[in-house]
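ok new one. same drill as before - structure tokens go in, u give me an amino acid for every spot. 384 of them this time. try not to just spam alanines like last time pls lmao
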């Protein structure tokens, strides 16, 4: 699991901002927000334009680095506009069954690395400085990759330069190492690869942007299995939307989803914004064969009634207990010990600091405290 994340000089975050998933308090309530000693369910509040969306992009940047997954790639604005530093720095610390893995890198832009390094149990496995053309591969045997031809990797980097020495992009060595090594199934690099490959960001706006039926054609094929269709139906009912669903295949081969009443009612023509957002959430997660490892739900409840928002949080707690889920919201109804806890509720400030509620007041927060009332009255205002 991800134990600690730090980013600096990226978009909103001029100064270093850190999420320490191991920094938990000894609360005896809402224990389902914690898994194996780490925060598994987190809720972040912040005023508009504080960088909640950008924080999700930063957290999942490693997925692009390791797998070249496009995600939120944009060359327009990458570095902090007020910083004089030439690169953004990302640091990920993982704990895989007691084994510590730290992967760090710096980027000039979304497509060009400055340097990267990997440490396992505080042993430096490799260190690549692409700008200075300095490479250290002395401890590859620690991950049983001593047979990897590092010289070939360096040659591939040099081949990417043109006659004037201009580099188009640098292939991360970690990506190259995982792809070109016969690693054992229990290798910590395989565990890292599996974790990062199952990280995702979901924005509430996706449901509105991708309203075209064609985007769901592949998903509708899975719903032809009646068990899958009933599972979607049960999901809606669990969220408080009572409905019966029918999927029909038209003569032209198109599949159409309906609400079943005395007459069939087209789903996409009549579903509310909240229902569409739930449908998109289900589509992104439920059909997956592998359980997600990390989910960043940006403004996840933008189209939900507060009770439905609570149901979504309860659903993730029950369905994915070990998955690390970070949600962003403006809904203070969710700021309650009945659902979360003070060490899992955070405030993202305008200056880019991230503070847990339990550290945002001199009071010793207890289960009986009304966190929402304290927030609205300005108890944590200095951290906004």
């Amino acid at each position: 699991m991800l134990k600690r994340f730090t980013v600096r000089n990226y978009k909103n975050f001029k100064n270093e901002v850190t999420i320490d998933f191991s920094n938990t308090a000894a609360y005896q309530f809402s224990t389902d927000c914690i898994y194996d000693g780490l925060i598994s369910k987190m809720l972040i509040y912040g005023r508009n334009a504080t960088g909640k969306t950008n924080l999700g992009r930063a957290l999942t940047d490693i997925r692009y680095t390791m797998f070249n997954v496009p995600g939120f790639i944009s060359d327009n604005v990458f570095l902090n506009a007020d910083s004089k530093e030439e690169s953004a720095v990302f640091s990920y610390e993982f704990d895989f069954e007691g084994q510590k893995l730290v992967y760090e890198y710096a980027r000039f832009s979304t497509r060009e690395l400055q340097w990267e390094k990997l440490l396992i149990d505080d042993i430096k496995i490799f260190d690549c400085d692409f700008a200075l053309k300095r490479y250290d591969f002395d401890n590859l045997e620690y991950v049983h990759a001593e047979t990897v031809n590092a010289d070939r990797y360096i040659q591939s980097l040099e081949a990417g330069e043109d006659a004037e020495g201009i580099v188009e992009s640098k292939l991360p060595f970690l990506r190259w190492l995982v792809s070109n090594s016969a690693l054992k199934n229990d290798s910590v690099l395989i565990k890292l690869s599996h974790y990062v490959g199952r990280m995702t960001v979901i924005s509430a706006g996706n449901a509105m942007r991708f309203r075209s039926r064609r985007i769901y054609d592949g998903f509708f094929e899975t719903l032809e299995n009646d068990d899958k269709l009933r599972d979607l139906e049960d999901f809606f009912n669990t969220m408080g939307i009572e409905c019966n669903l029918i999927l029909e295949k038209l003569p032209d081969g198109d599949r159409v989803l309906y609400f079943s009443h005395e007459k069939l009612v087209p789903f996409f023509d009549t579903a509310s914004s909240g229902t569409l957002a739930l449908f998109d959430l289900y589509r992104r997660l439920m059909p997956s064969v592998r359980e997600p490892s990390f989910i960043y739900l940006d403004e996840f409840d933008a189209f939900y009634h507060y009770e439905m928002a609570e149901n979504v949080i309860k659903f993730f707690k029950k369905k994915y207990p070990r998955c690390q889920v970070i949600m962003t919201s403006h809904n203070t109804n969710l700021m309650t010990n009945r659902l979360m806890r003070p060490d899992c509720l955070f405030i993202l400030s305008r200056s880019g600091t991230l503070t847990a509620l339990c550290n945002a007041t001199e009071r010793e927060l207890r289960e009986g405290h009304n966190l929402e009332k304290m927030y609205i009255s300005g108890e944590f205002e200095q951290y906004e």
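Confidence is low (pLDDT under 50) at residues 162-168. and btw The longest strand covers residues 99-109.
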